[in-house]
Amino acid sequence: MEKIIGILRFALMREIEGREFYKEKAKKVSSKDIKDILEGLANMENDHVHFIEGLMKKAQNNIEITIEDTEVAMAKSDFFEEREKSETVTGTLDEMANDLAILRMAYLIEEDFEKFYRQSAEKVADEEMKKILNILATWEEGHKKVLLDAYDEARKTYWNQQGFEPLF
User: Is the dihedral of CA 67, 68, 71, 72 positive or negative?
Assistant: First the structure.
């Protein structure tokens, strides 16, 4: 149980860091769509914080953690499914470059979260906890995909504004 509590404690710290990053960066982007994405991610990371806190309480009190613990969290896990594609990046070239950098950092954060949860799932013996960690990894993978799509769209717009497109 100590291994599970340690994993959850580290996960909680990372989710809090992610939430704060998204809240802070949402204030610094010029694009409304990117701001909406970052604010949505901050809200989801906040949900993850509460979810993990609940798991930690159970683990600390030696209460069995089951896959049913994820059902409520899954019900509100992804506002991105309803998001329509629109122009992601607008503004000056400097503003667009800033937004691109923030999207890239956000993508890397989600990639780190996903890897952490997948690697942690491999290290726990408890099958229910393994499933829960893999579900968390899948949520992060979904966030990563949305960010990559937004980044690719923004990058193309940025290149277009400069009349540039690389050969690759």
Answer: negative
CA–CA separation, 138 and 143 (whole Å): 9
Q: How many other CB atoms sit within 10 Å of the CB of residue 128? A: 15
Give the tokens for residue 121: 């799932």
- Rounded-to-5 percentages of helix, strand, coil across the chain: 80, 0, 20
d(CA 154, CA 152): 5
- For residue 4, give the nearest of 56, 82, 75 by alpha carbon: 56
- Summarised one tens digit per residue, pLDDT across range 63-94 is 887 777 676 566 555 555 444 444 455 667 78
Indicate the DSSP class of residue 47. H
Mean pLDDT taken over the chain: 85
- Predicted TM-score (pTM) of this structure: 0.81
**Buried b / exposed e across 129-158, counting CB within 10 Å, b at 16+?**
bbebbebbbebbbbbbebbbbbbebbbebb
Residue % of the chain over a pLDDT of 70: 85
User: Is residue 117 within 8 Å of 109, Cβ to Cβ?
Assistant: no
- Residue 8 burial by Cβ neighbours in a 10 Å radius (0-12, 13-18, 19+): buried
- Locus of tokens 């952490």: 116
**Tokens encoding 107:** 């993508």
Query: For the residues 140-166, what does the mean pLDDT come to?
Result: 87
